[in-house]
Amino acid sequence: MSTQSNQHIDDQELIVRFRKDGNNEWLGILLQRYTLLLYGVCLKYLKHEEEAKDAVQQVFIKALDELQKYPVSYVKSWLYMIAKNHCLMKLRNKNGKTTDWDDRYLAEPDEIADRDEMMRKERDVELLSKAMQELNDDQRLCITLFYLEKKSYQDIVEISGFSLMQVKSHIQNGKRNLKIHLERMQNNER
């Protein structure tokens, strides 16, 4: 089963197929769609790339476990909440406490500015995630492997089966298309 050929299947259908035949590849396709969003959320809270990558893996494990037990209607927002809660718990365990949005009234002006900046970044990550879904499967795969998973061109050649020139082309065209999609989305928000 090719992950790329199943990108057209909607989230709910992937869950139905998983529940029907128990094949984890259906969930793999589903989680791959939201890797960028989850990474952005985790990076926003944890502030370190490696910690964020580890957190995404932990969120995937938790999501796989939970999807087998409970019905989920809105996968994207559900995954977002799992990631946010995971990061907050990680910060709480690390610092002995955590800050939540509700204590805004107790915050100093600098803290409010930092939170506003984090909310802006969160919006940007959300837009980037949507823009990634607009790319064709080959571009999305190469962009994800190169920028998020920090794979080399040669690694991507081996993983994807594309030639080196195809990998470079998919990355270059993907970057250009991401920029176009992001600009369009930002203009639509105004």
Radius of gyration: 18 Å
Which range best describes the helical content: under 10%, 10-25%, 25-40%, 40-55%, 55-70% or over 70%?
A: over 70%
Query: Which structural class fits the helix and strand makeup?
Result: mainly alpha
Q: Which of globular, elongated, flat, extended, rod-shaped describes the shape?
A: globular
Write down the overall mean pLDDT.
80
Output the number of helix runs. Answer: 9
Order of helices and strands: HHHHHHHHH
Strand content of the residues, in percent?
under 5%
Brief synopsis:
With 190 residues, the protein is mainly alpha-helical. The protein is built from nine helices and no strands.
Describe the structure.
With 190 residues, the chain is mainly α. The protein is built from nine helices and no strands.
Keywords:
about 190 residues; mainly alpha; globular
List the helices and strands and how they pair.
Elements lengths: L10 H11 L2 H10 L1 H12 L2 H21 L5 H21 L13 H26 L2 H12 L4 H8 L3 H26 L1
Helix pairs in contact: 1-2, 3-4, 3-5, 3-6, 4-5, 6-9, 7-9
